[in-house]
Amino acid sequence: MSVQTVSVIVVSRERPDLLRRCLTGVGQLCYPDFEIVVVADRTGCEAVAAMGWAERVKLIRFDEANISAARNFGIAAAAGSIVAFIDDDAVPEPTWLTHLAAPFDAPEVIATGGYVLGRNGISFQWRGHLATRTGGRIALPHVDTDPFTPKAASGQAVMTEGTNSAFRRDTLAGIGGFDPAFRFYLDETDLNMRLADGRGDTVLVPLAQVHHGYAASARRGHDRAPKDLTEIGASTAVFLRKHAPDTDHPSALAALRGERRKSLLAYMIDGRLEPRDVRRLLASLEAGIDAGMSRAIATLAPIGAPTVPFLRFTASLSGRSRHISGRHRHRRALKQEATRLVAAGDIVTVFRFGPTPRAHRVRFVEGGWWEQTGGLFGRTERSGPRFRTARFAERVRGEWARVAKLRQCATNDP
Prior knowledge:
Nucleotide-diphossugar_trans; Glycosyltransf_2; four-stranded mixed beta sheet; Glyco_trans_2-like
């Protein structure tokens, strides 16, 4: 397998703490030949500088609330033959880029997409889907971990997630990158539809995994309740104008209204929204639809070649992947040992279990290691039994076996 040069692009706005965590994870990637391109607002740029990374990454100041435009600035600066994208509120498994880039050895492959783990770090938030011309999605059944190339019918496209996707730079730049008419919603889906014209194959890669927590933003709170639906309405209208015949617009917009109303009522029932919030949010959706029906849709010009050479990221990794374990009462000692191992360049996983049936959770902590917590008798997969009997050492061995293939570099010690 050849090694392609890859530019990892991270866009960040008003989330400097999450950007630092994301970059810490990206800095532990096993992949041998990548650069990091950060497109961020003032606070994000300051966070990168505070990490001491200002000279280690390509840093671009961008203050506009438009992720498509920001990503295009990243593409313009990217000098890798492949460009990969991850969001600032996500963290990649160490083998993420190794798996995501591998299919590009085949010349017919122009894009790849990985799987996304949700807030508990165990359940999948996103796997494989096809996109329809009205912006809908169709789930793809796939049960093993091998990369696969879905077949899309006419009017469909293989979907990739913006927080876990990669493209050949020349292909992506040649079609003008992302369309800035989509400021944050349906931007990737629009790109997928534009690539679904016989240019090449999109491969989905189940082992290319990132953890994504849906962090708070100007559009949603910490509890994931929406604050505004204007851009969702606007982007949907733009998407329909670009990809669907006029006769499909009324039914697609009716479906959007119904889905969003149902979702808002669910938030209201569980106390995250007030009735007046539901009315306000539905009104913002309508305002967005109206705006999207008249929003300018420009012809996208190709993005030129980068003017700055490839800036290879040099990580201080040992190549070792370590896992340590203990009870909840050992928390302080485990933290000290994990800190020491991370400082030595190791990829570290901490298993910390208590004598309860509490469900497990995985997260990448600020100190730079992976931490799995829960009860010794609790379930990992949410589809499993709520209670299971296990000895401590047996449980640790089982959990390490579950994640080892994601956490170990090819050069890892036996």
